[in-house]
Write a structure and sequence with these properties.
This protein is mainly α and about 110 residues long. The chain contains five helices and no strands. It is globular, with a radius of gyration of 14 Å.
Length: about 110
């Protein structure tokens, strides 16, 4: 029923599983504010890591400070995606790295 309601409102529904795993979609996880397509969304919640997500959260003020005064939606999405690119999530979210300074992973 919920999936149909989402579809009826014009959004692409995505069943992320049981409520017990809803933490995988929380702020600073690989599925949060990353504007993923339905195909990309599938593996993103599985890549969530509670410990890493805390470290990402703690680094976000510094990351956003590099954007300057009026970041665009695209800037914010890219910073969020870049925070999860390396290791397992890099293969999941795909794409080239953001410009230097946006991503802290080793290259």
């Amino acid at each position: 029923m919920a999936v149909q309601l989402v579809d009826d409102t014009g959004f692409g529904p995505f069943d992320a599983g049981v409520l017990a795993n809803s933490w995988r979609q929380q702020p600073m996880g690989p599925a949060y504010c990353t504007e993923l397509t339905l195909d990309q969304m599938g593996p993103a919640p599985a890549a969530a890591d509670r410990d890493k997500d805390v470290r990402v959260r703690d680094s976000m003020l510094e990351r956003f400070a590099t954007l300057g005064g009026a970041p665009t939606l695209e800037d914010v999405v890219e910073v969020n995606r870049a925070a999860h690119r390396r290791h397992r999530s890099h293969r999941i979210l795909g794409g080239a790295h953001a410009p230097r300074g946006c991503c802290r992973c080793s290259r």
